[in-house]
Structures are given as structure tokens and as C-alpha cells.
Amino acid sequence: MSREELEEPASREAGLDAAMRDRIVRGAAEVVFRLGVAGVSIERVRATSGVSRLQVARCFPAKEALIDAVVDFRIAAVLARQCSLLIGLRSLADLQEWADDVVELNGARGCPLGSLVSQLAEQSGPMRAKLDDAFQTWQSYLAAGLRRIQDHGELNAEADVAELATGIVAALQGGLILAQAARSEKPLRAALDLAVGRVVLAADMARPPAPADAQGPSRSGADVSPGPESGLTTVQPHVPRAARETSSPRPYPNG
Fold it and tell me: Which residues of 208-226 are buried (b: 16+ CB within 10 A; e: fewer)?
């Protein structure tokens, strides 16, 4: 019997074990999201993942190992999604599009990572550090996008993109908690509008001031509001994506 023939059964079994483990972790992640870490039990994980109690115990002899795997699973999923959303961030319009996507994706469901922090940060130092690293990575994706906006001249070169990114993620997490409590996406939308508005203000600082004569005579009683030729941006109230699409349908994408 060749070496390849001897290794094939072991390789097949390893593949089956990996698939089983993934199935259990996904089931446990759903239990944690619905019932919290305290709600995890072999019976609930078995029922959610569709495996036997023996298979759960074989893959994860201790609950701590299963929770650790759930944390890794949630971190990988959230960061992969945010990376895909933020990799093309190059303008303020892109930033608003990202905020709209976050509201549509999460609504009033809360954040899997934020939920895990509230449950595990005081119980496990390594878990807290792992989740902190995840949020730092998320913020780095945002900071990189804001830096690209700076490079395009749309954001003040002196703006601290790391600080802005931290503020956006903090607003997002707070908005998610309030949205989950209210069973409404409105608090999340309000929080993100404020965070994006802070970036818009920093972007306005990147534009040169208008010439004095462009602002109109201020002593004659005439309107001194800056016009479009002034180079200043007037921050308009945010219109949710659904309302924008209703009033101005998007063309079909090419191809």
C-alpha cells in the first residue's frame, strides 16, 4: 500500500472533524447571540447545530474552549465584513454609504462583538484582550479609509484620522446598544449621523475660506449666507438611503 493510500483515510477524517467543529461553533454562536454566554449548554448547542451530544463533547470537552472558538468565529466574520465594506472608502459619500450599510445590516439586532465584550471582559483577561484587538483592527480599517479621503484633499490634512475612527466606532457601538433596547434602528442612525457629521466638519476645514466680496455686503442688510461660489459646504440633514432611493431611483449598474 502506497503512502498516499495510507494518508487518505486520515486526511478524510480530519476534514470531517473540521466540518463538524465548524458546524458546532456556528450553532454555539447562534445560542450565544440569542441567550448569551450563560445560556450555552450541550443540549442547546446540539439542537441548534444538529449534532449529537457526544460529538459536541468530543470536539469541545470544556465550555471555555467552545466560547473561545465562538469569539474567534464572530471576530473573523465581523472583520471580514467590515474590511469588504471599508476597503473602497475614498470619499465622504463613501463614508455615508458605509453608515447606511451598517444600519441596514444591523438594524436593532445589536453587535455580536459588543455583546461579547459586555459578557466576557470582566471574566477573562485573554478574551478581553482578543476583543480589544478586534476593535483596534476595525478602527484601523476606518482610519485607512479616512486617510485616503485626506489624500484626495476632501479631509483636512491636520485631522487625526485615528481619533475620528475611534469616535465613529464608539458612536456605532453606543447606537447599537440603544437600538437593541428600543427595538428600532433610529438610535443607531442618529449616532452614525453625528459621527459622520464630525468628519464632515473636519472636511470643511480643508476648504479655503471664501473671499470677502463673495460673502456679500454685511452692513447693508443683504443676505450674507455663503452661496455655492463661496467654497464653503453647508451640512444638510441626512436623508436615509430608503428615502433617497424612493425620490431618485438608482440606474442599473453597467454589465
Answer: eeeeeeebeeeeeeeeeeb
Exposed / middle / buried, residue 12 (Cβ in 10 Å: 0-12, 13-18, 19+): exposed
Q: State yes or no: pLDDT of 17 exceeds 60.
A: yes
Of all residues in the chain, what percent carry a pLDDT higher than 70? 74
The 10 Å CB-count burial string (b at 16+, else e) for 86-120 is: beebebbebbbebbbebbeebbbebbbbbbbbebb
**CATH annotation of 70-207:** 1.10.357.10
Tell me the average pLDDT across 12-41: 88
Task: Considering only CA atoms, give the Rg of the chain.
Answer: 25
The C-alpha cell at 73 is: 468565529
The architecture CATH gives domain 10-61:
Orthogonal Bundle (1.10)
